[in-house]
């Protein structure tokens, strides 16, 4: 392959072609870091079965790349491998892949569908962040964790299915997924990160699994369409700004397990007309109910707060 630099051990270090469809020769064992980076004329690539890995930033900013077939020989996709491949519309990840690096498909705005195989055990940080064209996504039951910012800014995402294997959802995982109207959290979930659903303006209701012990800072901040939320008896704390700006929330019952409510937790919940504070609450933050203009009274513990 005259227009490429290939090392003795088969690593494609740099593609120097002028674009179009690149065909990699048999014998290439891996696509190296930055190999096709900023090849804005690249429209397609044929990867042989000899390739086992796709390196970091390998196809970054290949804006005209519309599709790619990843062979069954590939076991890992590196960090930011397809970052800003805005023309990429669909990807099938083979079952041989066990690792998808952080930001692998970050800002792939044209990506409408992707198949994640059952061999993948975690969705890395920023993996699909900013891929606004994604509409529906099924997570395989091999996955146990959703990383921070994993789907942040996926504004077109309307439905996502989380399997019973998922135990944790990272910080900002679904931040600003404005098209998401509902999500079923499996009972296996024990932790939901800070700001995990912040700005999900289409989200109307959610049930928190009974293994979750805290609602983190800003978890549902500015979820303006949220009208119903069910908190289990396992929840002991509600973080700062947890429900701030949830202007559609009208009624909320806090379980007897809650002991603390953070600063501005329900700030500017303009439609909130009724809430009962259980006797278990011993710590209430500043401005917890500031701007709740529909709230006439707050039934509160008979015990004095410290």
Tell me what the structure shows.
The chain starts with a strand and ends in a 22-residue tail after the last strand. Helices cover 0% and strands 22% of the residues. It has 306 residues and is mostly beta strands. The chain folds into 3 domains: 1-107, Ribonuclease Inhibitor (Leucine-rich repeat, LRR (right-handed beta-alpha superhelix), Alpha-Beta Horseshoe); 121-198, Leucine-rich repeat, LRR (right-handed beta-alpha superhelix); 204-306, Ribonuclease Inhibitor (Leucine-rich repeat, LRR (right-handed beta-alpha superhelix), Alpha-Beta Horseshoe), CATH 3.80.10. Mean pLDDT is 92; it is low at 302-306. It has strands at residues 4-6, 11-15, 20-23, 30-31, 42-46, 53-54, 67-69, 76-77, 90-92, 99-100, 113-115, 122-123, 136-138, 145-146, 159-161, 168-169, 191-192, 205-207, 214-215, 228-230, 237-238, 251-253, 260-261, 274-276, 283-284. It is elongated and about 75 Å long. A hairpin with a 4-residue loop joins strand 1 (4-6) and strand 2.
- Report the span from N to C terminus: 74 Å
Q: Summarize model confidence as the mean pLDDT.
A: 92
How many separate domains?
A: 3
Largest sheet: 6 strands, mixed
Supply the CATH class of the largest domain: Alpha Beta
Radius of gyration: 23 Å
Total beta strands: 25
> How much beta, percentage-wise?
15-25%
| CATH architecture annotation name of the largest domain | Alpha-Beta Horseshoe
Helicity level? under 10%
Uncertain parts = 302-306
Structural class call reads mainly beta
CATH topology of the largest domain: Leucine-rich repeat, LRR (right-handed beta-alpha superhelix)
**Biggest sheet: strand arrangement:** 1-2-4-6-8-10
């Amino acid at each position: 392959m005259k227009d490429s630099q290939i090392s003795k051990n088969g690593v494609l270090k740099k593609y120097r072609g002028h674009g179009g469809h690149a065909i990699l020769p048999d014998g290439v064992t891996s696509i190296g870091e930055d190999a096709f980076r900023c090849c804005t004329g690249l429209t397609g690539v044929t990867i042989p079965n000899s390739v086992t890995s796709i390196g970091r930033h390998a196809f970054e900013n290949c804006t005209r790349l519309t599709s790619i077939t990843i062979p069954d020989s590939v076991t890992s996709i590196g960090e930011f491998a397809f970052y800003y491949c805005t023309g990429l519309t669909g990807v099938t990840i083979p079952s041989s892949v066990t690792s998808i690096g952080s930001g692998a498909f970050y800002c792939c705005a044209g990506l409408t569908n992707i198949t994640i195989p059952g061999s993948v055990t975690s969705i890395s940080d920023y993996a699909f962040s900013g891929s606004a064209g994604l509409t529906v996504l099924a997570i395989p039951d091999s996955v146990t964790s959703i990383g921070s910012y994993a789907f942040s800014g996926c504004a077109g995402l309307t439905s996502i299915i989380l399997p019973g294997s998922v135990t944790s959802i990272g910080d900002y995982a679904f931040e600003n997924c404005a098209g998401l109207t509902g999500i079923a959290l499996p009972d296996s979930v024990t932790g939901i990160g800070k700001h995990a659903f912040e700005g999900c303006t289409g989200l109307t209701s959610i049930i928190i699994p009974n293994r979750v012990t805290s609602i983190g800072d800003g978890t549902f901040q500015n979820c303006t369409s949220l009208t119903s939320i069910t908190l289990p008896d396992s929840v002991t704390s509600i973080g700062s700004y947890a429900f701030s700006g949830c202007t559609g929330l009208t009624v909320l019952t806090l379980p007897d397990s809650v002991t603390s409510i953070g600063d501005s937790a329900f700030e500017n919940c303009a439609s909130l007309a009724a809430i009962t504070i259980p006797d278990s609450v011993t710590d209430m933050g500043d401005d917890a109910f500031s701007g709740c203009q529909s709230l006439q009274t707050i039934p509160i513990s008979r015990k004095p707060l410290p």
